């Protein structure tokens, strides 16, 4: 049997080059085979948007639940001093209550029988509640005083609507606001420096005494007793965060009052003897001071 071996080279013909890959040099590390990296899991579209939508829906429901209560309070107590609380429509006498709140206690503020306007102007309460909710959510004051501020706003907003309508702050709104504010600040002081509570008590009592003294000494030229009762909670809230915050709130309050008064005088919509309600300026000045200085 003939032995086979590599074919002999044929004269005049070149062999094709060897194209097989060269072996790696000895001692060199071999690279692992490339592997396909799994793609990261895709985020569910609309996750953040759905969360924001849920927050918006809950806020709307909260406003719809709270606003009728505030409208009811403003409707009842927006009467001149000495008159009984209002219980129904002034035009037709139809009763207005929480058992059948719509549309009288809704944003339209219309009597369900005669379609006359009832209580505060349309949408005003809802806008006020929405503005308060947005401000508290975006720049609410830190610490345990936040529940006290929420309580205070819940009673003060309808009180201010009454003050704008008939120039008085009813005790049934200002005194619960003060009592609840002091109580909630006292609860917050259990986990904070007791000096906060002491400063709140001194601030509330001192500011109320100042307002009451002007009412006694100056009569109609001074502040009303309703302003003094509202100052019980205003001074406590501002004093909780320190004397500079209390002073800043008073500066904002009196500054806003002066600017509005000068604007009304310049446009001849008021004269030097015109009496302006001071409650709205207390609300705006206090809220602005708490949001800006805390």
Automatic annotation (TrEMBL):
Indicate what this protein is called per its UniProt record. Answer: Leader peptidase (Prepilin peptidase) / N-methyltransferase
**Record-stated family:** Belongs to the peptidase A24 family.
What are the annotated GO cellular component locations? plasma membrane
What is a GO molecular function of this protein?
A: aspartic-type endopeptidase activity
Membrane-spanning segments:
123-143, 173-190, 196-218, 230-256, 276-293
Keywords, alphabetical = Membrane, Methyltransferase, Transferase, Transmembrane, Transmembrane helix
Q: Identify the residues that the record assigns to the Prepilin type IV endopeptidase peptidase domain, covering every copy.
A: 154-255
User: GO biological process: what's one of them?
Assistant: signal peptide processing
Disordered: region residues: 1-47
Top-level lineage group: Bacteria
